Each structure stands twice: as C-alpha cells, then as structure tokens.
C-alpha cells in the first residue's frame, strides 16, 4: 500500500527516480526529517494542482546524496532535503506557462525555476524567498537569469 502524503501525492512518487533505478542507487529510504519535509512539499504541490486544475507529473522529488552526485546536482540542492520537486503539467500548458501561473498566484515558495522542459519548485521550512529564475543550457552547462522567460537552447 502506498503511503499517501496528500490526496494526490504519495511518498513513492516523491522518491521515484528512473536514474536511481538505472544506476542501482537506493533512493527509497530517506531519513524521517526528509519524509516530514516531503509532506510539507506535497501540501504545496496540492495548492499548485488546485491552481492549475490538472494532474501534475513529478519527475524528481527527493534525491539521496549518491543520486544527487550521480546526476551532477548542486551540493546544496533542496532535493536532498525533500524540499524541492521537478514536474510538468502538460494538460495545463508548457512548463513556462505553468511557472507563470504559479508565480501569479498566492502560493508560497522559496524558488521557482523554468528549466525549459520542466518546472522546479522548492520550499523552505523558514523564510521563502519567492525567487523566480530561468535556466539556460549551453554545451552541458547551465546558467540562470532572474525572472521567468523562454530558456535558450530548450523547448518552451
């Protein structure tokens, strides 16, 4: 039986990682503090789902340190603490349209990034900054600019 964090989000979907499976990394046993954070994150994602009015598909939630290192994630990634999620909502629109809808809402977040093919949303347990960024990819490197806009070298 799946542990439901909220009506629409389970712990399993916050832990699922195709990359971890492919690389043989166990990403399924986070510390209690991370599970608690994932519950807070799922609450925020429920508000996002209600705002969008469509299902959300999570591609990355929690990342254990080994998985985060394997994918080249930031050493301070909120994913490792269960405080960030990457997702799409194709029935609503493009990732940019999704990010813009969230930015225009009353949903509280620490960081909202239009990553081109997906949206990254992070929360903080303390003071959310409401930071909005756009990722730009060039020759395997990523850079960020303030605000939400079309990503260079990515699909809208």
**Helix content range:** 25-40%
Structural class: alpha+beta
Q: Distance between termini?
A: 37 Å
Query: Any idea what the shape is?
Result: globular
Number of helices: 5
User: Quick check: average pLDDT?
Assistant: 93
Q: What Rg do the Cα atoms give?
A: 15 Å
State the CATH topology.
Muramoyl-pentapeptide Carboxypeptidase, domain 2
What count of structural domains? 1
| CATH level-two architecture | 2-Layer Sandwich
How would you summarize what this structure contains?
With 156 residues, the chain is α+β, with helices and mostly antiparallel strands. The chain has 5 helices and 6 strands.
Entry keywords:
alpha+beta; Muramoyl-pentapeptide Carboxypeptidase, domain 2; 20% strand
Set down the secondary structure blueprint:
Layout: H1 11-15, H2 18-23, H3 32-52, E1 57-60, H4 65-70, E2 84-88, H5 95-103, E3 111-114, E4 119-122, E5 131-138, E6 141-146
């Amino acid at each position: 039986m799946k542990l439901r964090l909220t009506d629409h989000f389970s712990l399993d979907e916050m832990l699922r990682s195709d990359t971890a499976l492919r690389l043989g990394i166990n990403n399924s046993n986070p510390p209690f503090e991370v599970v608690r954070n994932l519950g807070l994150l799922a609450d925020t994602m429920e508000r996002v789902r209600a705002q969008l009015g469509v299902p959300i598909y999570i591609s990355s939630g929690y990342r254990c340190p080994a998985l985060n290192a394997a994918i080249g994630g930031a050493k301070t990634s909120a994913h490792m603490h269960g405080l960030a999620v990457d997702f799409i909502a194709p029935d609503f629109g493009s990732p940019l349209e999704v990010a813009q809808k969230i930015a225009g809402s009353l949903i509280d977040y620490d960081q909202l990034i239009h990553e081109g093919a997906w949206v990254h949303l992070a929360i903080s347990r303390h003071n959310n900054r409401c930071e909005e960024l756009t990722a730009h990819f060039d020759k395997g490197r990523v850079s960020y600019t303030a605000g939400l806009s079309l990503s260079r070298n990515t699909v809208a």
